[in-house]
Write a structure and sequence with these properties.
Layout: E1 3-8, H1 12-23, E2 28-34, H2 37-47, E3 51-54, H3 63-73, E4 77-82, H4 90-97, E5 102-105, H5 115-131
Parallel strand pairs: 1-2, 1-3, 3-4, 4-5
Helix pairs in contact: 1-5, 2-3
Length: about 130
């Protein structure tokens, strides 16, 4: 069974890096991507993903507002991938309160070109765990 993943980040470069990380795992499939929370909600309705990798800082609708609304639309598990994802930060605590199953901090700020190298394994591990895969 392939796990369907939606990638949400306002940066095209970061969406591409995250998609590359996800597709490296044969059990995972990227079914779509979105540049903000508002677009993500439309994608969720259309694609019915199992897992959503969600940034926090985005225009139009940020990740935390999107997370609030997702609870009404989908049973997808949400993993936050954000530069604001430091352990114990107000945004991380709020994300968990709103139902995120994991938070992965981008290692070098909003534009973390080293994401795959430094956090790729952590992202895959979080997705597999959220999906109930070994």
């Amino acid at each position: 069974m392939t796990i369907k993943v939606l990638v949400v980040d306002d940066s095209f470069v970061m969406r591409t890096l995250i998609k590359d990380i996800v597709v490296a795992d044969a059990d995972l499939e990227v079914v779509g991507d979105a540049a903000n929370g508002k677009l993500a909600l439309d994608q969720v309705k259309a694609l019915n993903p199992d897992i959503i990798l969600l940034d926090i800082e985005m225009p139009e609708m940020d990740g935390l507002e999107c997370l609030k609304r997702l609870k009404l639309l989908s049973r997808a598990k949400v993993i936050i991938v954000s530069s604001l994802g430091q352990m114990g930060s107000p945004q991380t605590l709020e994300a968990y309160k709103l139902g995120a199953v994991a938070v992965v901090e981008k290692p070098s700020g909003a534009m973390s070109l080293d994401l795959g190298l430094k956090k790729g394994h952590e992202i895959i591990k979080a997705v597999r765990k959220a999906a109930g895969l070994p």
